[in-house]
Amino acid sequence: MESLKIHSAHHKPGASVLAVFIAGAWFFVITWLLTAYFIFPNEPGWAMILVVAASAYMVYLVAESRNLIHALRHKFTLTIDTNEVSLQVDKGPTVYERTMPIDCIKTIEIYRYWDEGSLVLRGKEHSMEIPLWAFPHDQSRIVRLLQKTHAEVISVP
């Protein structure tokens, strides 16, 4: 069996679309706050309702924006060799690594979604998820190489 070492793509599929929607949401929050500012002299009650609603939505947007920024910084390195499969996840200050011996893999579950596709390697005692979306140009190579382990391949719709 051949060896393979792949580094993840620089962006997550769909991240740019999500960033556009979040930017649009920020535009509406600013619009609501400006509207509240201008209607305050005539309708202070409605202005306060707008400020409270916009503030609550801003808390949600801050959390989503932060999650998107952190998710875009994750880097993955997948190594498949004759003995084991290793996935290294670099989350900035911390690096996580998960390995699974090749001979322990009993089933390979393939989840094919264009933006969240993944492989789940299952063994008797361990399981390991490989995010296929992180390797958009190498997905078929990864699947072909893992199929050579003679594990049962299950395609999950």
Layout: helices, strands, pairs:
Layout: E1 4-7, H1 15-39, H2 44-73, E2 75-80, E3 84-90, E4 95-101, E5 105-111, E6 118-123, E7 127-131, H3 139-147, E8 152-156
Parallel strand pairs: 5-8
Antiparallel strand pairs: 1-2, 2-3, 3-4, 5-6, 6-7
Helix pairs in contact: 1-2
Can you give a write-up of this model?
The protein is built from 3 helices and 8 strands; from the N terminus they run βααββββββαβ. The chain has 2 domains: 4-9 and 75-156, Pleckstrin-homology domain (PH domain)/Phosphotyrosine-binding domain (PTB) (PH-domain like, Roll); 15-72. β2 and β3 form a beta hairpin. The protein has helices at residues 15-39, 44-73, 139-147, and strands at residues 4-7, 75-80, 84-90, 95-101, 105-111, 118-123, 127-131, 152-156. The relative contact order is 0.17. The protein has a 4-stranded antiparallel sheet with strand order 1-2-3-4, covered by helices on one side. A 4-stranded mixed sheet has the order 7-6-5-8, with helices on one face. α1 (15-39) runs antiparallel to α2 (44-73). The radius of gyration is 22 Å and the shape is elongated. By secondary structure, it is α+β, with helices and mostly antiparallel strands. The model has no long low-confidence stretch (mean pLDDT 87).
